[in-house]
Amino acid sequence: MHSTYKIIILLVFATASFKTYANTLKVSSFNGTSSEKLQKAYNKAQKGDVILIDIDIEFKHDDKPFVINKEGITFKGKKHSKTKKFKLYKTEKKGNLILLKVGDTHFENLIFENAVNLIRIESGTKVLSNISVKDCYFSNSKYTGIDFRGNFTNVNVENTYFKNCKFSLQTFDSVILKNFIVNTCTFEEGDHQISIDNAFADTDLIEHANIVIKNCTFYVADRFNIALANTRNALIKNNNMHGGLQKYSQAVHIEHDTRDVLIKNNTMKNDVGNAIIIFSTGYTGHGNGRKIPNEEKINFGSSNITLDGNTITHSKQAAIAIGYGRGFLKIKGNNVLNSEEKIISGFATKKTMTFKIDNNALFNGKKYIDISESEMPNYVLIKN
Protein backbone atom coordinates (compact mmCIF):
# COMPACT_ATOMS: atom_id res chain seq x y z
CA MET A 1 0.00 0.00 0.00
CA HIS A 2 1.28 3.45 -0.88
CA SER A 3 2.61 5.32 2.16
CA THR A 4 0.30 8.31 1.48
CA TYR A 5 -2.79 6.08 1.73
CA LYS A 6 -1.46 4.55 4.95
CA ILE A 7 -1.16 8.01 6.50
CA ILE A 8 -4.72 8.93 5.45
CA ILE A 9 -6.14 5.71 6.92
CA LEU A 10 -4.25 6.23 10.17
CA LEU A 11 -5.60 9.79 10.42
CA VAL A 12 -9.17 8.57 9.87
CA PHE A 13 -8.85 5.97 12.62
CA ALA A 14 -7.21 8.49 14.95
CA THR A 15 -10.03 10.98 14.40
CA ALA A 16 -12.68 8.30 14.95
CA SER A 17 -11.09 7.21 18.19
CA PHE A 18 -11.56 10.69 19.66
CA LYS A 19 -15.17 11.14 18.47
CA THR A 20 -17.74 11.54 21.24
CA TYR A 21 -21.11 9.90 20.76
CA ALA A 22 -24.27 11.05 22.52
CA ASN A 23 -25.64 8.61 25.07
CA THR A 24 -29.24 7.78 25.89
CA LEU A 25 -29.66 7.37 29.63
CA LYS A 26 -32.79 5.47 30.72
CA VAL A 27 -34.06 6.80 34.02
CA SER A 28 -35.50 3.43 35.03
CA SER A 29 -32.04 1.86 34.91
CA PHE A 30 -30.88 3.79 37.98
CA ASN A 31 -31.56 3.01 41.65
CA GLY A 32 -33.68 4.89 44.18
CA THR A 33 -37.00 6.71 44.15
CA SER A 34 -38.20 8.05 40.82
CA SER A 35 -36.81 11.53 41.52
CA GLU A 36 -33.51 10.05 42.71
CA LYS A 37 -33.28 8.02 39.52
CA LEU A 38 -33.78 11.16 37.44
CA GLN A 39 -31.11 13.00 39.43
CA LYS A 40 -28.61 10.16 38.97
CA ALA A 41 -29.27 10.06 35.23
CA TYR A 42 -28.74 13.82 35.07
CA ASN A 43 -25.54 13.64 37.13
CA LYS A 44 -24.12 11.17 34.62
CA ALA A 45 -25.29 13.04 31.52
CA GLN A 46 -22.90 15.04 29.37
CA LYS A 47 -23.50 17.61 26.69
CA GLY A 48 -25.39 16.06 23.80
CA ASP A 49 -26.90 13.23 25.86
CA VAL A 50 -30.57 12.29 25.97
CA ILE A 51 -32.22 11.47 29.29
CA LEU A 52 -35.02 9.07 28.40
CA ILE A 53 -37.79 9.37 30.95
CA ASP A 54 -39.52 5.97 30.91
CA ILE A 55 -41.23 6.17 34.32
CA ASP A 56 -43.34 8.79 36.09
CA ILE A 57 -41.23 11.10 38.26
CA GLU A 58 -42.71 12.07 41.62
CA PHE A 59 -41.44 14.95 43.76
CA LYS A 60 -42.69 15.32 47.32
CA HIS A 61 -44.24 18.64 48.27
CA ASP A 62 -41.17 19.71 50.23
CA ASP A 63 -38.60 18.54 47.66
CA LYS A 64 -36.39 21.20 46.14
CA PRO A 65 -36.89 21.84 42.42
CA PHE A 66 -35.03 19.73 39.90
CA VAL A 67 -32.26 22.12 38.83
CA ILE A 68 -30.74 22.01 35.34
CA ASN A 69 -27.43 23.86 35.07
CA LYS A 70 -25.63 21.77 32.42
CA GLU A 71 -26.11 22.72 28.78
CA GLY A 72 -26.84 20.38 25.93
CA ILE A 73 -29.20 17.91 27.62
CA THR A 74 -32.45 16.64 26.07
CA PHE A 75 -35.18 15.37 28.39
CA LYS A 76 -37.38 13.06 26.35
CA GLY A 77 -40.35 10.99 27.38
CA LYS A 78 -40.38 7.46 26.07
CA LYS A 79 -43.35 6.73 23.85
CA HIS A 80 -45.97 5.40 26.25
CA SER A 81 -49.10 5.03 24.16
CA LYS A 82 -51.10 7.15 21.75
CA THR A 83 -52.92 8.87 24.60
CA LYS A 84 -50.43 8.79 27.49
CA LYS A 85 -47.08 10.36 28.31
CA PHE A 86 -44.75 9.91 31.25
CA LYS A 87 -45.02 12.75 33.73
CA LEU A 88 -43.08 14.82 36.23
CA TYR A 89 -45.23 16.09 39.09
CA LYS A 90 -45.34 17.23 42.71
CA THR A 91 -47.54 15.56 45.31
CA GLU A 92 -48.73 19.01 46.42
CA LYS A 93 -48.89 22.26 44.49
CA LYS A 94 -45.87 23.91 46.12
CA GLY A 95 -42.67 25.48 44.75
CA ASN A 96 -41.03 25.02 41.38
CA LEU A 97 -41.04 21.66 39.65
CA ILE A 98 -38.15 22.35 37.23
CA LEU A 99 -35.63 25.21 37.49
CA LEU A 100 -33.61 25.76 34.30
CA LYS A 101 -30.56 28.05 34.42
CA VAL A 102 -28.85 27.34 31.08
CA GLY A 103 -29.60 27.32 27.38
CA ASP A 104 -29.33 24.51 24.83
CA THR A 105 -31.92 22.46 26.70
CA HIS A 106 -34.81 20.53 25.22
CA PHE A 107 -37.98 18.89 26.54
CA GLU A 108 -40.01 16.47 24.46
CA ASN A 109 -43.07 14.25 24.90
CA LEU A 110 -43.55 14.84 28.64
CA ILE A 111 -46.26 15.90 31.10
CA PHE A 112 -45.52 18.51 33.78
CA GLU A 113 -48.13 19.04 36.47
CA ASN A 114 -49.09 20.23 39.94
CA ALA A 115 -46.64 22.90 41.12
CA VAL A 116 -46.53 26.65 41.55
CA ASN A 117 -44.27 26.95 38.48
CA LEU A 118 -43.91 23.89 36.30
CA ILE A 119 -40.80 25.04 34.40
CA ARG A 120 -39.13 28.24 35.56
CA ILE A 121 -36.25 29.48 33.41
CA GLU A 122 -33.89 32.11 34.83
CA SER A 123 -31.28 33.75 32.60
CA GLY A 124 -29.65 35.83 35.35
CA THR A 125 -27.11 38.15 33.74
CA LYS A 126 -26.79 35.97 30.63
CA VAL A 127 -28.78 35.61 27.43
CA LEU A 128 -30.02 32.02 27.18
CA SER A 129 -30.42 30.52 23.73
CA ASN A 130 -31.66 27.38 22.04
CA ILE A 131 -34.43 26.18 24.34
CA SER A 132 -37.24 24.02 23.00
CA VAL A 133 -40.41 22.40 24.31
CA LYS A 134 -42.14 20.00 21.93
CA ASP A 135 -45.11 17.66 22.22
CA CYS A 136 -45.53 18.30 25.95
CA TYR A 137 -48.48 18.85 28.30
CA PHE A 138 -48.60 21.35 31.18
CA SER A 139 -51.41 21.32 33.70
CA ASN A 140 -52.52 22.46 37.13
CA SER A 141 -49.98 25.14 38.02
CA LYS A 142 -50.73 27.72 40.68
CA TYR A 143 -48.77 30.35 38.74
CA THR A 144 -46.99 29.46 35.48
CA GLY A 145 -46.69 26.61 33.05
CA ILE A 146 -43.44 27.91 31.53
CA ASP A 147 -41.94 31.06 33.04
CA PHE A 148 -39.14 32.76 31.07
CA ARG A 149 -37.35 35.24 33.35
CA GLY A 150 -34.77 37.46 31.69
CA ASN A 151 -33.21 37.47 28.23
CA PHE A 152 -33.65 34.81 25.54
CA THR A 153 -33.01 34.02 21.89
CA ASN A 154 -34.02 31.06 19.74
CA VAL A 155 -36.86 29.63 21.79
CA ASN A 156 -39.37 27.22 20.29
CA VAL A 157 -42.53 25.95 22.00
CA GLU A 158 -44.34 23.61 19.63
CA ASN A 159 -47.34 21.30 19.62
CA THR A 160 -47.78 21.64 23.38
CA TYR A 161 -50.97 21.74 25.47
CA PHE A 162 -51.53 24.01 28.47
CA LYS A 163 -54.47 23.51 30.82
CA ASN A 164 -55.41 25.22 34.07
CA CYS A 165 -52.21 27.24 34.46
CA LYS A 166 -52.80 30.78 35.73
CA PHE A 167 -50.15 32.11 33.33
CA SER A 168 -49.68 29.30 30.83
CA LEU A 169 -46.63 30.72 29.06
CA GLN A 170 -44.95 33.88 30.27
CA THR A 171 -41.92 36.01 29.55
CA PHE A 172 -41.01 38.45 32.30
CA ASP A 173 -38.93 41.62 31.91
CA SER A 174 -37.06 40.49 28.81
CA VAL A 175 -34.86 43.27 27.45
CA ILE A 176 -33.62 40.83 24.80
CA LEU A 177 -36.21 38.54 23.23
CA LYS A 178 -35.47 37.31 19.71
CA ASN A 179 -36.73 34.40 17.64
CA PHE A 180 -39.28 33.45 20.27
CA ILE A 181 -41.72 31.10 18.52
CA VAL A 182 -44.93 29.56 19.87
CA ASN A 183 -46.40 27.27 17.20
CA THR A 184 -49.37 24.89 17.07
CA CYS A 185 -50.11 24.96 20.79
CA THR A 186 -53.41 24.73 22.66
CA PHE A 187 -54.42 26.77 25.70
CA GLU A 188 -57.32 25.90 27.96
CA GLU A 189 -58.44 27.82 31.06
CA GLY A 190 -56.11 30.06 33.06
CA ASP A 191 -56.00 33.84 33.49
CA HIS A 192 -53.32 34.96 30.99
CA GLN A 193 -52.73 32.17 28.47
CA ILE A 194 -49.73 33.84 26.81
CA SER A 195 -48.21 36.83 28.60
CA ILE A 196 -45.26 38.63 27.03
CA ASP A 197 -44.84 41.02 29.95
CA ASN A 198 -41.74 43.19 29.94
CA ALA A 199 -42.97 46.04 32.11
CA PHE A 200 -39.68 46.56 33.94
CA ALA A 201 -37.50 46.15 30.84
CA ASP A 202 -35.61 49.36 30.03
CA THR A 203 -37.47 50.85 27.07
CA ASP A 204 -34.30 52.42 25.65
CA LEU A 205 -32.42 49.10 25.65
CA ILE A 206 -35.11 46.72 24.37
CA GLU A 207 -34.08 44.35 21.58
CA HIS A 208 -37.13 42.38 20.47
CA ALA A 209 -37.35 40.65 17.10
CA ASN A 210 -39.36 37.84 15.54
CA ILE A 211 -41.71 37.16 18.43
CA VAL A 212 -44.23 34.86 16.77
CA ILE A 213 -47.44 33.26 18.06
CA LYS A 214 -49.00 31.19 15.29
CA ASN A 215 -51.34 28.31 14.50
CA CYS A 216 -52.57 28.06 18.11
CA THR A 217 -55.98 27.46 19.66
CA PHE A 218 -56.98 29.55 22.66
CA TYR A 219 -60.08 28.42 24.51
CA VAL A 220 -61.83 30.77 26.91
CA ALA A 221 -59.50 32.30 29.51
CA ASP A 222 -60.42 34.21 32.63
CA ARG A 223 -59.03 37.42 31.10
CA PHE A 224 -56.57 37.28 28.19
CA ASN A 225 -55.71 34.83 25.43
CA ILE A 226 -52.63 36.85 24.44
CA ALA A 227 -51.27 39.79 26.45
CA LEU A 228 -48.36 41.98 25.32
CA ALA A 229 -46.77 44.63 27.57
CA ASN A 230 -43.74 46.75 26.60
CA THR A 231 -43.11 44.42 23.67
CA ARG A 232 -41.78 45.09 20.17
CA ASN A 233 -42.04 43.36 16.79
CA ALA A 234 -44.62 40.66 17.48
CA LEU A 235 -46.58 38.60 14.95
CA ILE A 236 -49.90 37.00 15.94
CA LYS A 237 -50.91 34.77 13.04
CA ASN A 238 -53.39 32.02 12.14
CA ASN A 239 -54.73 31.58 15.65
CA ASN A 240 -58.24 30.80 16.88
CA MET A 241 -59.06 32.81 20.01
CA HIS A 242 -62.19 32.53 22.17
CA GLY A 243 -61.65 35.50 24.49
CA GLY A 244 -62.35 35.71 28.22
CA LEU A 245 -64.90 35.25 30.97
CA GLN A 246 -64.61 38.58 32.76
CA LYS A 247 -66.08 41.91 31.70
CA TYR A 248 -62.55 43.26 31.38
CA SER A 249 -61.18 40.54 29.11
CA GLN A 250 -59.78 40.37 25.58
CA ALA A 251 -58.57 37.90 23.02
CA VAL A 252 -55.61 40.23 22.34
CA HIS A 253 -54.52 42.64 25.08
CA ILE A 254 -51.87 45.22 24.09
CA GLU A 255 -50.54 47.69 26.65
CA HIS A 256 -47.61 49.62 28.15
CA ASP A 257 -45.81 51.07 25.12
CA THR A 258 -46.05 47.96 22.98
CA ARG A 259 -45.07 48.75 19.39
CA ASP A 260 -45.13 47.22 15.93
CA VAL A 261 -47.58 44.33 16.20
CA LEU A 262 -48.98 42.51 13.17
CA ILE A 263 -52.24 40.63 13.81
CA LYS A 264 -52.77 38.48 10.72
CA ASN A 265 -55.29 35.86 9.58
CA ASN A 266 -56.74 35.13 13.01
CA THR A 267 -60.27 34.21 13.98
CA MET A 268 -61.31 35.62 17.33
CA LYS A 269 -64.27 36.45 19.51
CA ASN A 270 -65.14 37.57 23.00
CA ASP A 271 -68.65 36.89 24.27
CA VAL A 272 -68.10 39.05 27.37
CA GLY A 273 -65.50 41.77 26.74
CA ASN A 274 -63.54 43.18 23.77
CA ALA A 275 -61.82 41.23 21.04
CA ILE A 276 -58.80 43.59 21.10
CA ILE A 277 -57.64 46.35 23.41
CA ILE A 278 -54.80 48.80 22.75
CA PHE A 279 -53.97 50.63 25.94
CA SER A 280 -51.45 52.45 28.11
CA THR A 281 -51.22 51.16 31.68
CA GLY A 282 -52.57 52.14 35.07
CA TYR A 283 -49.50 51.38 37.17
CA THR A 284 -45.78 51.11 36.61
CA GLY A 285 -44.28 47.64 36.67
CA HIS A 286 -46.55 44.63 36.74
CA GLY A 287 -49.64 46.38 38.01
CA ASN A 288 -48.18 46.86 41.47
CA GLY A 289 -46.01 49.97 41.12
CA ARG A 290 -46.69 53.69 41.09
CA LYS A 291 -50.13 54.72 39.94
CA ILE A 292 -49.76 56.67 36.72
CA PRO A 293 -51.75 59.92 36.58
CA ASN A 294 -53.87 60.47 33.48
CA GLU A 295 -51.61 63.22 32.15
CA GLU A 296 -48.70 60.75 31.98
CA LYS A 297 -50.54 57.80 30.49
CA ILE A 298 -49.97 58.88 26.89
CA ASN A 299 -46.25 58.26 27.49
CA PHE A 300 -47.08 54.58 27.94
CA GLY A 301 -49.52 54.35 25.02
CA SER A 302 -49.12 51.52 22.52
CA SER A 303 -48.53 52.14 18.83
CA ASN A 304 -48.27 50.85 15.27
CA ILE A 305 -50.76 47.99 15.22
CA THR A 306 -51.76 46.36 11.91
CA LEU A 307 -54.76 44.09 11.30
CA ASP A 308 -54.52 41.97 8.16
CA GLY A 309 -57.05 39.30 7.16
CA ASN A 310 -58.69 38.78 10.55
CA THR A 311 -62.25 37.77 11.38
CA ILE A 312 -63.82 38.90 14.63
CA THR A 313 -66.94 36.77 14.68
CA HIS A 314 -68.42 38.38 17.80
CA SER A 315 -67.48 40.93 20.44
CA LYS A 316 -69.87 41.76 23.26
CA GLN A 317 -68.21 45.13 23.78
CA ALA A 318 -66.42 47.20 21.14
CA ALA A 319 -64.38 44.97 18.85
CA ILE A 320 -61.32 47.22 19.27
CA ALA A 321 -61.02 49.40 22.37
CA ILE A 322 -58.28 52.03 22.50
CA GLY A 323 -57.01 54.23 25.30
CA TYR A 324 -54.06 56.61 24.91
CA GLY A 325 -53.22 55.20 21.49
CA ARG A 326 -50.14 56.43 19.64
CA GLY A 327 -48.59 55.94 16.21
CA PHE A 328 -51.11 54.24 13.94
CA LEU A 329 -53.80 51.59 13.75
CA LYS A 330 -53.99 50.08 10.27
CA ILE A 331 -56.96 47.93 9.25
CA LYS A 332 -56.62 46.35 5.82
CA GLY A 333 -59.57 45.68 3.53
CA ASN A 334 -59.54 41.93 4.13
CA ASN A 335 -60.69 42.23 7.76
CA VAL A 336 -64.21 41.22 8.82
CA LEU A 337 -65.03 42.77 12.19
CA ASN A 338 -68.27 42.25 14.13
CA SER A 339 -69.45 43.62 17.46
CA GLU A 340 -72.65 44.14 19.44
CA GLU A 341 -71.39 47.65 20.08
CA LYS A 342 -69.00 49.80 18.05
CA ILE A 343 -66.20 48.35 15.97
CA ILE A 344 -63.68 50.89 17.31
CA SER A 345 -64.13 52.83 20.53
CA GLY A 346 -61.37 55.05 21.83
CA PHE A 347 -60.50 57.84 24.23
CA ALA A 348 -57.49 60.11 24.76
CA THR A 349 -56.41 59.01 21.30
CA LYS A 350 -57.80 61.37 18.67
CA LYS A 351 -54.72 63.61 18.45
CA THR A 352 -52.06 60.95 19.01
CA MET A 353 -53.05 57.98 16.82
CA THR A 354 -53.57 57.90 13.06
CA PHE A 355 -56.26 55.56 11.70
CA LYS A 356 -55.60 53.90 8.35
CA ILE A 357 -58.78 52.00 7.51
CA ASP A 358 -59.17 50.43 4.07
CA ASN A 359 -62.48 51.21 2.38
CA ASN A 360 -63.20 47.49 1.86
CA ALA A 361 -62.92 46.50 5.52
CA LEU A 362 -66.23 45.07 6.74
CA PHE A 363 -67.65 46.60 9.91
CA ASN A 364 -70.72 44.67 11.10
CA GLY A 365 -71.35 43.54 7.54
CA LYS A 366 -70.93 46.96 5.95
CA LYS A 367 -67.98 48.16 3.92
CA TYR A 368 -66.20 51.05 5.57
CA ILE A 369 -66.61 53.16 2.43
CA ASP A 370 -70.39 52.75 2.61
CA ILE A 371 -70.73 54.06 6.16
CA SER A 372 -72.13 57.58 6.02
CA GLU A 373 -70.87 60.42 8.15
CA SER A 374 -74.03 60.37 10.24
CA GLU A 375 -73.74 56.61 10.77
CA MET A 376 -70.03 56.64 11.59
CA PRO A 377 -70.38 57.19 15.38
CA ASN A 378 -72.27 53.89 15.53
CA TYR A 379 -69.19 52.13 14.11
CA VAL A 380 -66.19 54.25 15.07
CA LEU A 381 -66.10 56.75 17.91
CA ILE A 382 -62.80 58.23 19.06
CA LYS A 383 -62.93 60.73 21.90
CA ASN A 384 -60.13 63.12 22.71
Automatic annotation (TrEMBL):
Pfam families: Beta_helix (PF13229). InterPro entries: Beta_helix (IPR039448), PbH1 (IPR006626), Pectin_lyas_fold (IPR012334), Pectin_lyase_fold/virulence (IPR011050). This is Right-handed parallel beta-helix repeat-containing protein. Residues 72-193 form the Right handed beta helix domain. SMART domains: PbH1.
